[in-house]
Amino acid sequence: MLKQLLNRLPRKSSLTTTTKSDNGGDSAGIISGSNVVIASGNRIQRSNSTNVVPNRASANALKRMSSAVFPSSVVAGIEPLLSFKDVPNPEKQNLFVSKLNLCCVVFDFSDPNKNTIEKDLKRQTLIELVDFIASGSARFTEPVIAGICKMSAVNLFRIFPPNYRSSSNGGEADDDEPMFDPAWSHLQIVYDLLLRFISSSSLDAKIAKKYVDHSFILRLLDLFDSEDPRERDCLKTILHRIYGKFMVHRPYIRKAVSNIFYRFVFETERHNGIAELLEIFGSVISGFALPLKEEHKMFLWRALIPLHKPKSVGSYLQQLSYCITQFLEKEPKLAGSVIKGLLKYWPVTNSQKEVMFLGELEEVLESTSMVEFQKIMVPLFRRIACCLNSSHFQVAERALFLWNNDHIVGLIAHNRQVILPLIFPALERNTKNHWNQAVLNLTVNMKKMFSEMDNDLVLFCQGIYDEEEAKESTESERRKGIWERLETVASSQPLTGNTAVLVKPTTSISAC
Predict the structure, then answer these.
(1) Where does this protein have compositionally biased stretches of type Polar residues (predicted)?
(2) Is residue 152 in some structural domain?
(3) Would 387 be classed as within a structural domain?
(4) What CATH number does the domain containing 449 carry?
(5) What is the pLDDT of residue 108?
(6) Given this model, what pLDDT does residue 504 score?
């Protein structure tokens, strides 16, 4: 009877009071349920009352307890420490928002012994939120969307301290141990919640785009500089989902990522997330419609190709090559521009980068048509000739391995009248002077292949090479005779005062 009378009394379905928390957040909710939470040591114990409607004393006790743990997060309304199963279905959405507000409190994880009870309570609350979304019970109304975006921003968006970043900018740092964020036990759950939220089929993108806006995306992109590889992996998945969900934001994302690449290439040469960003764009490029827009081609020319310039290109070359290959599959005519870009940024003093460039060059040539190949074959094989004569045996060997590719051999054979005269002097110098036996053997095999392909052309090139060598020898003897005469004249005159002294010249070394 008493229960029936109480049910007839008017109740407030939502009593909302807003206060400013320490971090600038708002909290709102409704008092309901009968779950009492008791903090004991490092554990959080729950005890359920048998009453459906809590009395004033138990509700106040529960609120005092949670206010003591999170003094700035708990306000009048639903008690956020209640379990979802302990409140009626109409109030679960309000409890969801209340729990989101509670999780806006950020703790210091530099000291593992600090706020252990509060950290454990927050972690359990985050897990409850994830489970609630996974169950499909969550309805993404505008207050819920705002609460999720706010909670994610408070917990995830942060400035990395200077000592958090790696001080090296070369490929040698690839083997260093990665740094792991001490707050990952909480960050991981927040990322999981954000991913489930973005991926949910019930999320209305038209409403969510007001909160997942340009500012939110830009700050999310800033997190790619994290040194924690686990965080970058989560960000990679989330950004890809955002790109797929919010079509209106796609041009902005491409522009923002381009700006990250520009800053990395031309200013800092330090960024931890280039590989992950390129991995995202590998799948994005594969979805570009044909014919390619001019904006997409500019992204290739201005953002992707200059990424070959930094010293640390080895840490993301695989992803970069995949992106470029995707462009060439969409539009093979771009092969000439890509090869020109490779030649522009070709390393001069870094042999390891040169080996990597030769590997990527082979992939590009596999997608190159005869027409595009003929446009760039002269400057290309002048560069390859220099690689054939490299004193670093790996560079010379990798350049010779290009002839193991049937497609490249076909392109060369069709244009041998132009290509062989460019590389024949390098082959001859290798057979006479190169110190590495493997390079010497490969060079001999290549000469045999050209002889079988067109022996008359090989003999013609041999004749030109011998003639040039004879001219060079004659010129060298002439210069040597001039120096000897000058030395004789100089030695016959006594040294007085500041008289200049002729120094015997050293043997000159030809460079590419």
Answers:
(1) 13-24
(2) no
(3) yes
(4) 1.25.40
(5) 85
(6) 61
Q: Is residue 180 part of a domain?
A: no
One DSSP character per residue, 56-93 reads: HHHHHHHHHHHHHHSTTT--SSS-TTS-GGGS-GGGHH
Identify the CA nearest to 304 among candidates 334, 338, 263, 331: 338
Q: Which of 439, 449, 365 is CA-nearest to residue 401? A: 439
| Contact (CB, 8 A) for 221 and 256 | yes
Quote the domain boundaries for residue 341.
332-476
Let me know if residue 35 belongs to a domain: no
Which residues of the chain carry a pLDDT beneath 50? 1-59, 61-77, 164-175
Residues in the chain: 512
What DSSP string runs through 382-412? HHHHHHHT-SSHHHHHHHHGGGG-HHHHHHH
* Surface-to-core class of residue 281, CB atoms within 10 Å of its CB (0-12 exposed, 13-18 middle, 19+ buried): buried
- pTM value? 0.76
Q: Domain total for the chain?
A: 1
How far out from the chain centre does Cα 59 lie?
50
Q: What is the predicted pLDDT for the residue at 312?
A: 92
Quick check: helix, strand or coil at residue 377?
A: helix
At 325-365, the pLDDT tens digits run 999 999 999 999 999 999 999 998 899 999 999 999 999 99
pLDDT for the residue 90 = 82
Evaluate the omega torsion of the peptide bond into residue 291 and state whether it is cis, within 30 degrees of 0: yes
The predicted pLDDT at position 501 comes to 62
Extract the tokens encoding 498: 């500041």
d(CA 418, CA 464): 14
